[in-house]
Amino acid sequence: MAYDIRPIAEDHIAGFHAALDYVAREKKYLAFLEAPPLDKTSAFIRNNIREDYPQFVALAGGKVVGWCDVIPAKDRPIHAHTGVLGIGILPEFRGKGMGRALMTATIAKARTKGLTRIELTVRENNVNAIALYKKIGFETEGIKKNAVRIDGVYENICVMGLLF
Q: Do the Cβ atoms of 87 and 39 come closer than 8 Å?
């Protein structure tokens, strides 16, 4: 399947929102169970563009089918070197190298922005994602037990970090 990796632009907002909502509703991967309202998503994207935060989308046939971003961890000077990575890919595009391509572009841009640490959280049972993160260079820093509860089921969260 052919796809392009591009920096996010305003004309990607609706497609990003739809992809985010789809992945969120799977209830397996994200901290959302559904996408925030479109106006909040639009404000988030426009702010990322204005601040030049690393955020890329994967496009297939002109449709947003995946994304990756690194957003500042906290609004404090002591954390200015740290970003938090988020990523999502529609099911039919998983396992085809898109995640690696998105992460490579996003992390490269994060480095040019002066970040020296990127962190993420991932559900412990998401072994495919954890394997990819480790291939990229992330290391496991800890486990947060029962950190997620969806439909009455608890899951552990793996905290990972990448230093450069």
A: no
CATH of 4-116, one of 1.10.10.10, 1.10.150.120, 3.40.630.30, 3.40.50.150: 3.40.630.30
127-136 tens-digit pLDDT: 999 999 999 9
Query: 29 near 129, Cβ under 8 Å?
Result: yes
In DSSP terms, 70 is beta-bridged to 85
Q: What is the largest CA-CA distance in the chain?
A: 42
**Token digits for 6?**
């591009």
Mean pLDDT of 108-118: 97
β-strand partners of 2: none
Contact 84, 118 (CB under 8 A): yes
pTM of the model: 0.96
Q: From CA 122, how far away is CA 156, in angstroms rounded? A: 9
